[in-house]
Amino acid sequence: MNMKMYQGFNREQLEERMRMMENRFEQHKAQSLKLDMSRGKPSKEQLDLSDGLFKNITNFESEDGIDCRNYGVIDGLPEMKRIFAQMLEVDQDELIVGDSSSLNMMYDVIARAYNHGLMNAEPWSRLDKIKFLCPCPGYDRHFAICELFGIEMITIPMNEDGPDMDMVEALVAEDRSIKGIWCVPKYSNPTGIIYSDEVVKRLAHMRTKANDFRVFWDNAYCVHHLYEENSLLNILAECKKAGNADRVFMFASTAKISYAGAGVAAMAASRDNIRHTLGQIAIQTINPNKVNHLLHARFFKDLDGIKEHMKKHAAILRPKFETVTSILKKNLENLNIARWTTPRGGYFISLDVPEGCARKVVAKAREAGVTLTKAGATFPYGIEPEDKNIRLAPSFPTPAELASAIEIVCTCIELVALEKILLNEVNR
Amino acid sequence: MNMKMYQGFNREQLEERMRMMENRFEQHKAQSLKLDMSRGKPSKEQLDLSDGLFKNITNFESEDGIDCRNYGVIDGLPEMKRIFAQMLEVDQDELIVGDSSSLNMMYDVIARAYNHGLMNAEPWSRLDKIKFLCPCPGYDRHFAICELFGIEMITIPMNEDGPDMDMVEALVAEDRSIKGIWCVPKYSNPTGIIYSDEVVKRLAHMRTKANDFRVFWDNAYCVHHLYEENSLLNILAECKKAGNADRVFMFASTAKISYAGAGVAAMAASRDNIRHTLGQIAIQTINPNKVNHLLHARFFKDLDGIKEHMKKHAAILRPKFETVTSILKKNLENLNIARWTTPRGGYFISLDVPEGCARKVVAKAREAGVTLTKAGATFPYGIEPEDKNIRLAPSFPTPAELASAIEIVCTCIELVALEKILLNEVNR
Fold first, then answer.
1. Domain A61-301 class?
2. What residue spans in chain A does CATH classification 3.40.640.10 cover?
3. Contact criterion met (CB below 8 Å) for A245 and A239
4. pTM of the full structure
5. Closest listed residue to residue A102, CA positions, set A235, A264, A297, A306
6. ipTM rounded to 2 decimals
7. What is the CATH number of domain B11-46+307-427?
8. A59: distance to nearest CA of chain B, Å?
């Protein structure tokens, strides 16, 4: 937003615009809307796409004759591993398939790193300080894990092609207490960007002071295209080339492929990392829910099955994303008071409003019945110093609800921006 | 075994018996049996009892209109909580329903106690030493968790009515580093005993030096009767009466009600403990698999539904337990070389052989194709100083296989006992 806000408006026109927006806001409020677009939840229509999971179940025997109902198979059902191996471009023995939550798998990696230590490393609980790099805006649940463990978070600016790698490289080369970086490398939450090949390579090759530094590669949206298929460089392959095979833990799940709360999650890493991890998981539990693995493997069959399925999701999601961006454009274009992303996949649109306005916009929208993600949520500790980023999650509402909600958001942005301008002018 | 082994046999008769057993052992070996009775796995026939879980699924909406496929509801689906509340005799807000593994829930309680601390307590990772009391023989997977965390395990003798409470009380009153005790209070693994009311009350009332001492109440077999229904005093209620409401974490699961590897697990505790735990779990994951909760709640309906269902399990298991005990009796009665339990529920028979013989018996049985639970597994670190306890798990094999296996075990016990006697006599 280098341009001046409301360029070409004089004070009188600004005040008139303010009155117009105040009227509009009262009209919005009169609708008594109640709409939650705070989280990236799939809609009912999307969930229905996978109800075939539970159709025509005649037996629970896997391809290899495993009775999926019984105990055993700590690393997950082979046919489900095969699908994740295709999806993440790794070998089957570089994988662990778990229960439904990839977030829980990430948490567990960190919890085990604290209690027992990563491979060939001492437990983090014995060290004075642990730090993680957090490209921002990012995913609030990653940051919440760090906060719970008392991990100091260092904000890294997020560019169009991934995190600011100059800064990342400089930090990890010097500071032994930096043990990890959070990455959502494809259709990033919330900006929607995809890490460039160069960024992936630099992450794989960079020199780190900590021997047990790990890239937490949360590939939550790897097959979640809204338009064309976009690819992402395979970071495990790059790490191997760089002689840093053990540097990365990759995560994925079918949360936004099958069921958000009842899908299948997986993690991938080098064989040594997987072997070491399984040694610990084997004490933690007996097996993941293999029946759920079996139902998923039978329903999707292979990566092609998943890709076909994702086209159905895209057909539902694409118009929602386009509703949001077209309404933002219609209302706010040329006012220079907002900037938003137009992602080619994933679940979010990242919206920037003028500095110091995000919290006010979110509060104002709530007043009119629209719950947005808490302002600041995309930054460590829930605080964005510049107070300008808002995450929009268009997936859950119906298109009509969404249109109303975004109209309201636009009005709120104008109200807050106009107030800021008019006050500043008064103060001049 | 106060009586003399093979009382009334002279050396010649013993040697003749030895030859007879050696012949018998060769015959066993010639059968080339391959039978694993090392773990408490339900049989296929038992698992089939619950296949109704996956029949006629027309929707995924809970009683309260929750879409179980989507995100949310961190503490578990209300209708599944209602069933566990009945089963564990607690209120619904004293419960968290999780994924499939109660072992994982226990591990997580300990992992969180280390990393973040129990309610009003500092993280265990900051303390020099943590100790747990382990009534023995007990469950190897409990002990494995302690070993992984470096928790020092103190063996407590197990009596007919529960652990030796004089010893427990004396230890916990003096040692602040003792933070927990493992209990399988009903149809205990492996002895099958049920904790008496007095033992439960003493556990609830005893004075502990550690403020964050917890009873880990693994009620894995609470409804797993083989004959009549046996009750167990409600430890949470007793703890409340004693003013120690926060002392206990109870665990249960449907692993041996529905599917061993794909059931539903739960934990119960005081409201304050549950609130504190949920605060941490909400960072760890988004929700447990509510679809699995829904299917279970619809299939079982309530505690009565579960009780009816457990009668079908008992009808399958009872003859297996009776096969084991009758063959043991037929072969070994009056020889004074073995003693075994005749449990009224649960999954195991505990078999004691002469001191120093358990490992040899297990090895010998393996030679003839029968895999038993590793000798020593029922003690901390997998080592029983007296080397006499063997855990028999009769659930998985067919009755015919089981009969062959126990015949072999009997032969092996005689071989090892006779060798011991004959060698000792030579050495005299």
1. alpha beta
2. 61-301
3. yes
4. 0.96
5. A264
6. 0.96
7. 3.90.1150.10
8. 9
